[in-house]
Amino acid sequence: MKDFQSSYASKHGASGFRNMPPSNKVDAALSFLAQYGHLPPKELAQLKAAVPQMTNDAELNDYANALWSMTGVGQYKSAWDDMMSSVKGQQLTRKK
Asked: Buried-most residue among 41, 44, 45, 83 (CB within 10 A)?
């Protein structure tokens, strides 16, 4: 996801994804979901149809965050981080 966001920002002339306008963040999230989200075309079309109803940047930003959360990437990262933090405190016998 981070590689996709970085590539998207670079292609659109931004130095980083966080600095992009909310409308671009929504567009990137929809592109990511279309490519990697395994969503039915009808559901993706419904998500895209909601964008013109947004009236300000705050709404677009909230919508972008909701779309990115649909990817589930954050859940996997949290699980990974939890596993790594529980292992770091253990003293493991060196593998031979």
From this structure: 44
pLDDT in tens, 14-37: 989 999 999 999 999 999 999 988
| Rounded Cα distance, 14 and 60, in Å | 18
Q: What is the pTM of this model?
A: 0.75
Q: Which two tokens stand for residue 86?
A: 């529980």
C-alpha dihedral, 59 to 18 to 16 to 46, nearest 10°: -40
The amino acid at 32: F
Would you state the structure tokens that stand for residue 30, as one six-digit string?
């929809």
Instruction: Give ∠ CA 13-18-19 in degrees, rounded to 5.
Output: 50
End-to-end CA distance of the chain: 36
